[in-house]
Amino acid sequence: MKIIVLGAGLVGGPMAIDLAADDRFDVTVADIDPLALRNLTTRAAITPREADLSQPQNVTKLVADYDYVVSAVPGFLGFRTLEAILHAGKNVVDIAFFPEDPFELDSLARKQGVTAIMDCGVFPGMGSALVGRAARRLDEVNDLLVYVGGLPVVRTWPWEYKAVFSPIDVIEEYTRPARYVENGTLVTRAALSDPELIEFPQVGTLEAFNTDGLRSLLTTLDAPNMKEKTLRYPGHIQRMAVLRECGFFNEEEIEVRGHRIRPLDVTAELLFPMWKLEKGENEFTLLQIHIAGVQDGRPTRYRYDMLDFYDAQRDITSMARTTGYTATMALRMLVEGKYTKTGISPPEYLGRVPGCCAYLLEGLAERGIEYRETIDQD
After folding, report:
1. Structural domain count of the chain
2. Are 83 and 101 found together in one domain?
3. Contact at 8 Å (CB) between 376 and 301?
4. Residue 112 and residue 8 share a domain
5. What are residue 290's DSSP bridge partners?
């Protein structure tokens, strides 16, 4: 079975390594960075392919010879890349967090007779699948509240943050308007809004803020109250808000001493080196989901908790593990015919199919990632 992973970055690389450990798969990784590709080939039996994935026509041609595709490109390339993969008629698992509506590609995927599982990470991702499973059990869903984030264990001034996935996608979390549902009404607020301090066992006090992480659940889940918040160490939000309000994240060009530049490009050049994890640096990924509704006539609350740390033995970050292994298990699920729905499938669709969530959870548990379910009924 020939698999191609598009992107050799912080998550794409570990996904390729996980797939290459499976005797059923012949794994290729495509990326424009030859150094990233060389680093991967020293860690697993992976075929490198240097390619410019920013050009959709390149992607369609590139994936034509493969059985399955995993897309791990940055969010700003995600929609066009997914569209190019669908034009090639390939089943795909996608972790790109792009801003466009993925259902715009549903008719193309159906026409091609392929399955496209998108947003297949932590949340959206495995957490969304668990929401789908809980919603299938409940007679009605009233409330959904999600907290999720990835952080270094050691806080370092001034940012007290390290990028555990594509840094440019991190900045999107600070600029993309956050959508949530309140009393049955869709609300749009600025990112970084409604900060609150929350105490979590094992990691201490974190600060949560609104982000646009509900994604497809805004239309696929019928609930009057839904909100997703990203977690950071206290103080980080204010620093990001200052940069945003001063224009450092703006994409419109300005003129500086006769040169046209985007403030975002300068900001990225300055921030990204400081946000880079050091070799062997410990970090964690935390997810907590609260779902409340009615089951068998009784008020029922589902809660899911996951806390995962850097894998020092394999030198793989927790974010790469929790995001990437969700996607690689979803790919195995496609290969084994356990999920066959054609078209665009957000991860909550997987939770609606009996056995799919259990399959994903079992694969994650085998890799040391545990999700704990708690159910309370009045």
Report:
1. 2
2. yes
3. yes
4. yes
5. 145, 303
Model pTM score: 0.93
Q: What contacts 365, CB < 8 A, 6 or more positions away?
A: none
Retrieve residue 343's tokens. Answer: 């078209």
With H, G, I as helix, E, B as strand and everything else as coil, classify residue 6. strand
Residues 235 and 110 in one domain: no
Burial (CB count within 10 angstroms: exposed 0-12, middle 13-18, buried 19+), residue 30: buried
Residue 75 belongs to some domain of the structure: yes
Tell me, yes or no, whether 316 lies in a domain: no
State whether 133 and 271 are in the same domain.
yes
Which residues does 95 contact at the CB level (< 8 Å), separation at least 6? Answer: 11, 15, 70, 71, 72, 119, 120, 121, 125, 323, 324, 327
Task: Name every residue whose Cβ is closer than 8 Å to that of residue 54 and which is 6 or more positions away in sequence.
Answer: 32, 77
**The domain spanning residue 191 has which CATH number?**
3.30.360.10
113-160 residue pLDDT tens: 999 999 999 999 999 999 999 999 999 999 999 999 999 999 999 999
Q: How far apart are CA 354 and CA 366, in angstroms?
A: 20
Host domain of residue 27: 2-122+322-369
